[in-house]
Predict the structure.
Amino acid sequence: MDITDLTPLERRIWRAFPHGTAVDVRPGEGEDPAAFRSADRDVRAEVVRALLLAGSSEPGEAPALRVAGARIIGALDLQHVEIHHPVRLTSCHLQDTLELDGAQTRQLDLSGSHLSALAATSLRVDGALRLTGCRISGSVRLSNAEISSGIFLAGARLGSGRGWALQLDHASVGADVRAPRLVALGGLHLGTARVEGAVDLEDARIENADGDALDAARLTVGTVLNAGGLTAEGRVRLTGAKVAGWISFIEAELSNPGGVALGISSCEATQLTLRDAQPVSGDVRMHYSTFKVIEAEPQVWPATVRLEGLRYEALTPRLPAADRLALLQRDVDGFVPHSYEQLAASYRRVGDDVDARAVQLAEQRRRRATLPWYAKLWGCVQDVTVGYGFRPTRAGGWLLALLLLGSAAYGLHHPPPLEHGKGPGFNAPVYTLDLLLPIMDFGQQAAFAPTGLYQWLSYLLIAVGWVLATTVAAGITRALSRP
């Protein structure tokens, strides 16, 4: 391009480029901001393209395009272009979509700029991509991109409410993706992306009520996924995601009424925290996920969850089993034994055997509801007598009560001996114990023969003794078989 065809501002930018000098045409203090759109701040897109392709430089200088406050007129098409110099277009207005599909550059900084859209599929940036404070009315397409030094979206506003506001699927980011206070009108698509550092969505707001607010299925994160304070309207999907550190939804508000609000199945992370989060509006799916620690108050969870195959080592804050068991009742798969075993094991790891047994007892009671009537009946007997083996002191209570009953009854009405003058003397408590304990023989039962009502009482004591012995044995076997 002939430099004589340039406007004064274009000529100024052209001359500044070889030295990497910044050209700032933003309104100064006291200057009318409306003057921003005046023609003396306009730069033609073809001039920017020609300058970047020409790549002129001078010895000892570091060329770079550094422009602030300009208005880029026309479509800036840099598709499949290799740019050898840093590009910094800050607080600029780009009239049309910035086309960077398949392009390569050292560094790209669009902080504070206004764009209609950014098309950068398969973009390669050897440094950082900075979109801090940007206003992009359309979508940002970074699918399959390779960004070496991170993506910065703090305070940016993306999307139009239709489709994806940000597409980062299948991308590779060598550092962090930082987007605190991001506002996205449309979903974020991070599926199968790989981020070596952290993903920071703290205090972000994502609105995509008719679809996915955050689709991060099979996302890989090298450190943490921080969504503290996130407000999401639409599904948050982390299916198959792998996070080396923790996943945080501290003080988050997740809402997708009538659908899945948090889909985190088959996910792996060190810790999942929903501390101080608002109650989730919508379903939660956590099946076949693995965490070391899950931090959440019971009131965070919605009416419908799915927990089959969920594995964890500890739950915080520490709460009684009764406060945790209600969640297991809400599983859409019905009775899931694994969920009870996981909860019991978490109490056992911290030495809380009382709550561990309470969970195991609740498991047996829930199982009973799935059995045929005769098995339910036997289950009720085990529950009432010894609490399925997890309340062994109940057996002692029953034995003591029956011992007192038999001792009183037979103490007032001695049964006649089978053979007069032979056998031991009658002892009402020992005779009652002989009836109650089937594996013990004190010689009393064989020596005396009650009649009438007292004979029926002896039959009752023998039957109850066998039931107690059987249920105690079954309970002990069940308890010992627990890990």
Observations:
- The mean pLDDT is 87.
- The chain has two domains: 66-368, 389-481.
